[in-house]
Write a structure and sequence with these properties.
The structure is a homodimer. Chain A is α/β, with parallel strands linked by helices and about 220 residues long. Helix content of chain A is about 45%, strand content about 20%. The first copy, chain A, is globular, with a radius of gyration of 21 Å. Chain A binds a DNA duplex (30 and 30 nucleotides) through helix 1, helix 3 and strand 2.
Chain lengths: ~220, ~220
DNA sequence: TCCGGTTTGTTCTCCTGTTCACAAACTCCT
DNA sequence: AGGAGTTTGTGAACAGGAGAACAAACCGGA
């Protein structure tokens, strides 16, 4: 009940903060590329689109990496955040479902530059096995187990139609994948130890539509 | 200061609830297609991946559409949620940036089926103006103003590279778009009355990586 | 060495969202 | 008609995150 903190830097970071760290990291990379050596919480907050108090509080969970009266060393902070998130290491990733979206994902340069390496593209449709996408052969879905084992893959991306998604997730879980990024518009059921994040395009649009409807309401509806 | 509620069904719904309504809607559509006429909060909650108390509370913001001892009429509730979100009406949408991702979005059937109609695909690159994607001509970005005016477009989707995104957003705002869905990995600055939602692929992966690192930590690091 | 100016780290308060638990309300069977 | 069983809607406790505000700590100049 006492020693909740593990030996390393493992004070547990709030989920909301974890979700913002990658934004800060990106802002720091930009600043670094512009040649900025030091920045205040105010500047970084502006670049990240949050307020400075929240930024400072978020960073304080990682440790005391700033200097009062001065600000943060851009490269140092950048490294600390990258290490905390885990993007200093290499993350092999498998993408299943190589339709339009899967191809877009395979070609997305933002993965590679952040430590994510696409080790395989899989698709159940034999017609797609001829293709080469982003320099990678599309292979049969059945190869999943072998690939996951050979490359120690922990993260899987699902970009299949909704009907196939649960089966794909089950297979992924069965062969040891513990983190899933799901683009299929369906709710996945997985064991508690597996993390799932979902990205749902039409839901985002529907949320916008709701607010949009609110804006114009009252003006039109007499 | 007193009359905060507008005449219609405009008791303000919490943001967290708004984000879940589309999920419920999708679950209801599935149930309806399976021929289910009635469902309990427990069943619907299971299908939507939330707990039943939260579901009931969410639905209670819309009104009392259930029957105690019985449950919810699937089609009736489906219509009520659709109306509340605004997907019973037609939403013209413009997509800017017809690279891999833009093409995937243009081809995504989930938009059309929920009242979103892609009225134009725009790209700054003249090489793309020859193309036809998802049955729609790709047109020059300069046509934005005219298209937005002619079709009363309120929602814009940005799928350009990061460097172009802010310019695109500015142009969208200037010609009257008030809701933006941003896929470019950058922070957009817009006036307060404009809604922006961002979908960031690499951030999602980084969040997974953080948790993944936590899982394996301690076991490996001696 | 001391002082004014600057910026971080943190505490405290407020607000939003989640979950529990239960009364109210409905159906069905006798 | 009445009672047992079921399910909704909601009040209340609880948890988590956001923002304001300020003390502690640092720099530079005299």
């Amino acid at each position: 009940m006492t020693a909740r903190t593990s030996p390393e830097s493992a004070r547990d970071i709030p989920e909301a903060t974890v979700a913002r760290l990658p934004v800060y990291l990106r802002a720091l990379v930009s600043l670094s590329e512009e040649g900025t050596a030091t920045c205040s919480s105010e500047e970084l907050a502006l670049a990240a689109g949050v307020n400075s108090a929240k930024l400072r509080k978020d960073l304080s969970y990682l440790g005391s990496y700033g200097t009062r009266g001065v600000g943060y060393d851009v490269d140092y902070l950048r490294y600390q955040i990258a290490r905390e998130i885990g993007v200093t290491q290499d993350w092999p990733v498998v993408i299943v479902g190589i339709g339009n979206l899967g191809q877009a994902l395979a070609n997305y340069s933002g993965f590679r530059s952040r430590g994510f390496r696409v080790v395989a593209l899989l698709d159940a449709d034999p017609a797609r096995h001829e293709q080469v996408v982003a320099g990678i052969d599309v292979r049969p879905f059945d190869h999943l187990e072998r690939i996951v084992r050979d490359h120690s893959v922990a993260i899987g991306v699902i970009a299949t139609p909704a009907v196939a998604a649960q089966d794909v997730a089950d297979r992924m879980v069965a062969c040891g994948i513990t983190s899933i990024l799901n683009f299929a518009p369906t709710v996945l059921t997985v064991p508690a130890e597996v993390d799932v994040r979902k990205v749902d395009l039409s839901i985002e649009l529907q949320i916008l539509a709701y607010h949009e409807q609110r804006k114009t309401q009252g003006a039109v509806t007499a």
